[in-house]
Amino acid sequence: QVQLVESGGGLVQPGGSLRLSCAASGFTFSNYGMSWFRQAPGKERELVASITSDGNSRNYADSVKGRSTISRNDDKSTMYLQMNSLKPEDTAVYYCKRTYSNYWGKGTLVTVSS
Questions:
Q1: DSSP-assigned states of every residue in 5-54
Q2: Mean pLDDT score across all residues of the chain
Q3: How many other C-beta atoms can be found within 10 angstroms of the C-beta atom of residue 45?
């Protein structure tokens, strides 16, 4: 069965960096686009970034553009989100999703606070 497992979240100070990972299993990872979403307390889940199956096209929400990089390693069936210059408003649970599907991970919490 399809499984998506996020990791890499934690507590970081404003201005710091984190790299989130999403380990995929149960399907041929290289055949699918992947996405990162986040949900902050009291807010709706929003798309953060997405990457196509071949890795050639990447899209970012305006809120993270220039500070974040989405990438993938098909040999490891893993997707990443490198986040830099983190702000308190980046605090959220971050989820990975197989694009154009209803397969989600359980999320990893990122807290940006001094």
A1: EEE--EEE-TT--EEEEEEEESS-GGGS-EEEEEE-TTS--EEEEEE-TT
A2: 97
A3: 15
Average pLDDT over residues 85-92: 97
Q: Any idea what DSSP says for residue 87?
A: -
Q: How far is it, in rounded angstroms, from Cα 8 to Cα 20?
A: 5
Kindly report the number of other CB atoms within 10 A of residue 37's CB atom.
21
In angstroms, the CA 16 to CA 85 distance is: 5
92: nearest Cα among 59, 66, 68, 57: 68
Which residues are 104's β-sheet partners?
97
DSSP assignment letter at 89: G
Q: How many CB atoms lie within 10 A of CB 109?
A: 12
* Alpha carbons 105 and 6: distance in angstroms, whole number: 6
Q: What is the mean pLDDT of residues 81-110?
A: 97
The strands making up 58-60's β-sheet, listed across from edge to edge, are 10-12, 108-112, 92-98, 34-39, 46-51, 58-60
